[in-house]
Amino acid sequence: MKRIVSGITPSGDGTLHIGNYLGAVQQFKEIAKDNECYLFVADLHALTTIQNKGILKKNSEQLILCELALLGDLKNIVFFRQSDVPMHTELQSILNNVTPYGLLRRAHAYKDKLSKDVSEEDINLGLFNYPILMASDILLYKPDLVPVGKDQKQHVEITRDIAERFNKIFKKEVFPLPEPFIPEEVAVIVGTDGQRKMSKSLGNIISIFESEEVIRKQVMGCFTDPTRKHATDPGHIEGNMVFTYLDYFGNHKEVSELKERYTHGNVSDVEVKEYLYASILAYFTEARKRYLDLKNNPKEVANILLQGAEKAREIAKNTMSEVRETIGLTNSYSFFQYPYRVSTDPITLNEFSLVDIRVGFVDKAENVEKSDKLIRLHVDFGDGGKRTIFTGVRGYGYTSADFVNHRFLFVYNLKPRKMMNEESQGMILAVDGDTLPVGEHGLRKPFFIAADNLPIGAKVR
Ligand code: ADP
Ligand code: TRP
Q1: 113: domain CATH number?
Q2: Is any ligand 1 atom within 6 A of the Cβ of residue 188?
Q3: N or C, where is the chain less crowded by C-beta within 10 Å?
Q4: Structural domain of 238
């Protein structure tokens, strides 16, 4: 298992076409079968060109949906957004200091821009610094390989340069040198015009997630064989986009037969296009379904990104701690800790002491009518007021009688939370009942911590 890092910039409109799929996503899925992959949406990189809130939002959302839909199973893939892992920019500002100005001036992206008669006044530093942010993206995860298109090879080489300099200057092999990985066999997919690289801006694409009508129209517009006037004329396969795409998406045997018929003038252009249309839809059926499911379920998407960001931060955090230590930012007075944590990270005593747990007396309890789970507890903490606190345990067989006139432990300083349009002003503490019977929800029945002989309002320390 090798570690792989790659980023995708939402600089286009975020939609993906079959060229993107065949030229990039498919390879990545292949690599992910037996490697540990970190794949992120490089939204900070997009800022070099996209400086409009609405557009950046829309492009990023679109790209996230398309990628997730096409990737499907995220086994071995940590998928996240660059801006959700702030260590990318933190490392960039450190690497700025070991990167020679001349190195960046030789970078293609910057040179290309200059040669297009754009004056230096019109080139922002984000573009100039792009390779350093990319180096940070990569080095944070200490990957073995970075899969990129040919146009990005130089960026990986610059990354190696920067890593080498850092290691040399600070006399520690913090960053292993990553290798660019350019899948050679990846052909550039030609567009439906039969001439130029398939590209959204050229309008020669076949979409993946557009409506069936749009895709049908795109397929019907494919360049075929201009010498062929009638379905009975013998047709050519070479350079015929319908057959080019069919080689990827069609059924091998059926495609061979169609080619045979086409060259003998036994099948019309419309018929082969219909077959291509059906093949593409069949090929992407699951991805298209996933796309709609995800689109209708923003919480699920957010959750995937959250989990991805947590995993990425865990690695990024370790690298950054090492970097801080190596360059001398850490000293005898240091207290800094990254605020991003995963649930298994230990918390400090100070953090724990922020949680205020008190003994509360339940003087009244009743079922919440419109719910089949909730019980409303009226809790006295001996502080003059009464609090309403909900617990959702009727499914386990608990009734209000189990609570009334008893004392329990509650979290006292919890932000109130709306439950069935009412505020729950705290939380009752329970123990996971490992040895207790499984309740209706299939979960272990919780066991409430009785505090009947403790004083009302007493704090737990
Ligand atoms: P472009 O490469 O045109 O700027 P994107 O940045 O949207 O387009 O491309 C995202 C990924 O899809 C890149 O890895 C790129 O190489 C790949 N890709 C885009 N268009 C094609 C194509 N026509 N054939 C093969 N790969 C493509
Ligand atoms: N610059 C890459 C592109 O334009 C995207 C990218 C950003 C990237 N950070 C990366 C790719 C890190 C690989 C690794 O395609």
Answers
A1: 3.40.50.620
A2: yes
A3: C
A4: 200-287
